[in-house]
Amino acid sequence: MKLDLSGLQSFPSIPGGAVDDLGEDLFAPPSFQLPACSDVPDSRASMGGYISSQSVKKIIEINPYMLGTMAGGAADCQFWHRNLGIKCRLHELANKRRISVTGASKLLANILYSYRGMGLSVGTMIAGWDEKGPGLYYVDSEGGRLKGTRFSVGSGSPYAYGVLDSGYRFDMPVEEAAELARRAIYHATFRDGASGGVASVYHVGPDGWKKLSGDDVGELHYKYYPVAPTPVEQEMTDAPAA
């Protein structure tokens, strides 16, 4: 399988055409301007039925304006996101401009497709902001690549999708979108044994990504489902101290 690395070549080595195979405009003026999208993962890692960690970082910063999420094998996701970050930097140095979200997602899909059938387990979202605006892509270890406005990936995704689909609007302000994503992650962790820990909220805008919050899902439970005291508990609370 031949790997498509044409997006890493410099301008003179690509004959003809205004757009390369990664969707990059080759003859646009160089730009280093960071030309807003929300990402929310949990932080639990499991080994079968065993919870191996509650503090895994499931959002990986590819560069200052692009993020990747982890679902599947932790080692596979971490390695290939680091690899993608290196190739994105090489593209920037060769072409004097940052790679687009479209180009980065296609590059990752091409790499993973070349290892198809070799046991990789990767399900990721590539979210970022480039000169054309926000971009969000789903990429998996089979080389699949989808563009969309919202995705949920991993074992808890069926539970998160119910919340996302019912509450999503195209014109949502940042805080409302972050709260919707946070609530979706909570409901996934409430029903899925492989999801849990901390719900971290990131926002990607024209000035790059920014972490908005990190909330323990145990505390979110009492936020979304406050526990009312029983009559006996209320009487004990109201009783004067002896």
UniProtKB/TrEMBL annotation:
Matches recorded under PROSITE patterns: PROTEASOME_BETA_2
Query: GO cellular-component terms in the record?
Result: cytoplasm; nucleus; proteasome core complex
Indicate the principal place this protein occupies in or around the cell.
nucleus
- Compartment(s) where it occurs, according to its Swiss-Prot or TrEMBL record: Nucleus
Record's SUPFAM superfamilies? N-terminal nucleophile aminohydrolases (Ntn hydrolases) (SSF56235)
Q: Which reaction is the catalytic activity of this chain? A: Cleavage of peptide bonds with very broad specificity
What class does this enzyme belong to in the EC scheme? Answer: hydrolase
| Its EC number(s) | 3.4.25.1
Q: Which Pfam families does its entry note? A: Proteasome
Q: Which GO terms describe its biological process?
A: proteolysis involved in protein catabolic process
Annotated signal sequence range:
none
Q: Report keywords, A-Z.
A: Cytoplasm, Hydrolase, Nucleus, Protease, Proteasome, Threonine protease, Zymogen
Q: What does this protein do?
A: The proteasome is a multicatalytic proteinase complex which is characterized by its ability to cleave peptides with Arg, Phe, Tyr, Leu, and Glu adjacent to the leaving group at neutral or slightly basic pH. The proteasome has an ATP-dependent proteolytic activity.
Q: Which PANTHER family match?
A: METALLOPROTEASE TLDD (PTHR32194), PROTEASOME SUBUNIT BETA (PTHR32194:SF3)
How does it associate, per the subunit comment?
Answer: The 26S proteasome consists of a 20S proteasome core and two 19S regulatory subunits. The 20S proteasome core is composed of 28 subunits that are arranged in four stacked rings, resulting in a barrel-shaped structure. The two end rings are each formed by seven alpha subunits, and the two central rings are each formed by seven beta subunits. The catalytic chamber with the active sites is on the inside of the barrel.
Q: What is this protein called?
A: proteasome endopeptidase complex
Q: Which organism is it from?
A: Musa balbisiana
What lineage is this protein's organism placed in?
Eukaryota, Viridiplantae, Streptophyta, Embryophyta, Tracheophyta
